[in-house]
Give the backbone structure.
Amino acid sequence: QKLYPPEEVGIRASEHLTYSDFPRLAEHTDGEATCYTMNFAFGDPADYDGGEFFIVTKDRNGREFSREILKPNRYEAVVFLGGRYLHGVNEIYGGNREMFSTEFWAYPDVPFGSSLWNNYPDNMEDYIERCNEERRQGNTGPCKQKYSLSTIFHESLDEVHDKYSAAEAAPSASLVHREESENQEIDVNHITNAKGFDGPLPPPYEGINRKKDDRERPNRVRPSHLKPVKVIFEDREGNEYEMNDFHPPELEPDFLIPKHLEPGQMVPIRWREDLNPVDGPDGETFVIGFPKELNEEFKKYIENNGMMDIAHRLLYRDEPIEPHEQRIYTLDDGEKWTAMVQGEWKNDMIWLDPGDESAFESLLGVLRRGGFDKVLEQVGNAFDLNGLMVQGVGAIFLSENRKTDNMHVDIPGSRGSFYNIIVPVHIPAGEVALFKLADAGDDYNGKLRMDPDVGVVLGGQSRHGTGECNYKENEEFRLSFAVYVADIDDENIDLIASDSTSLWPTEGDTFWFEAQKGRLWTRDGTHSLKNDKGRMPMNVQDKSPRCENMDKSLCMTDLKGMRLECPKTCEVYLEDDVYYAKYFPDSIHRAPSACMEDSNHPTCPSSDKTATA
């Protein structure tokens, strides 16, 4: 069902239709192997009564969505996706309706003498393979192989005629219900070598040269005065889109990206070439519209806390961060952030992540004020989730990225439970920021332009990467925030908590994930970001008695030692009373009473477990 460029398709069948033996054509498609169908009118609409051509679209439940009806003028043609859309002809009440119908497919022109009965992909691919083998053996002329005249029933046309009565076999091939095998792509070089005839007819006369013939008789093809008014396609939800709704190929050569998205509106990213979703019909790669407030809130946040200055220092002034090195910086608002580099790709990308629960909660405030609840609601409903928590919010800075293979997935095995929502915040003036996407098999990849008002939603297994850039001349960089959200349950909590790309939340801390489960959106509407009541109590404890007398400066320097061993003393997680008093003074989860009332909650300690971070 790919949309092939018209100049690359061949003729599958041509039929002269007079409708003398049948008064109408019931709704049908021309089979999946057909890309385009062209119906050319020999007569004028006044030559016959009734007989309107119609084309039907249906929603995902099979209900008719729209029915377009028309009668083409004499010597005009209707061109449409005959293999995809239901179409037909209303009953003819009188007069003479005369048409010439041609079907095109993603293979060479079929040999003379064949028909729709035997022009299906298996026959053509077998023919091409045999012609190519003949060419490899030294034949430089037209292919002399015979084209199979077997039908989709693996019988000859004569055998089919013998099987059915003459009355059953008489109707035009247009009325036959054709169940073709799935259309497959083939090597273009093979196509160009596969010209020729076979069967009962002789090979083409030597010396026929189609390109030369076209040059010598240019008047054979006349420019058409007809221009397409609309180019429309339908998505899997039954929504119709016009091609004019998307950015032109000069701006987005690889993908169809809508020119405008309402806040919370989410649309699958499609390949421009064939209109298919980038990672398949059940893919998890989308674009989503952001509220205007979201970008404004992020900009105010990074301006007030000095994050842009920290990023500039790290990229252009300070000693470069070494791979696997992590540093902690205290920003102007007093919040602590950790910095690290990826290390394996050929770029200077820096990741800044919240260093503790206090910094994380400050970011949730940005999302709350920026109307991010509309995004969470759409993601939750679109992927049929039960609830959503924000696992992390990280800032990604980049000044240079040379051409390199950095395609990756975030968490293998997390399909349907984990999503990464990219929020572009700063793109240098006059520059572009490119983002790369690939299909599930990483066979094809393309680039899209990042837009501060439009986010990219990636599933945990969506293949993505960073596009090439260089902003160093003006000591500039670009900034995006990655908002990681998850639908936590007993089966996936260990997998999602095992992420180790940041110091916080600490790797494997399932207690924190339990405390956040479904916090910011639930399907039943009981939880939302807008009406957030905070996490469940955790009763965080240090893991060692020596934390009580430790030098607290180690919390900033011994990042993988004392900081992780003493999460309470280092305030990696806030004590419950401090947490609720600071962020949610009216919360029903005020500790320690919540744990006293429900000591079986997984984030509360029991005799055989300790709720440590």
About this structure: Residues 541 and 612 are 5 Å apart (CA to CA).
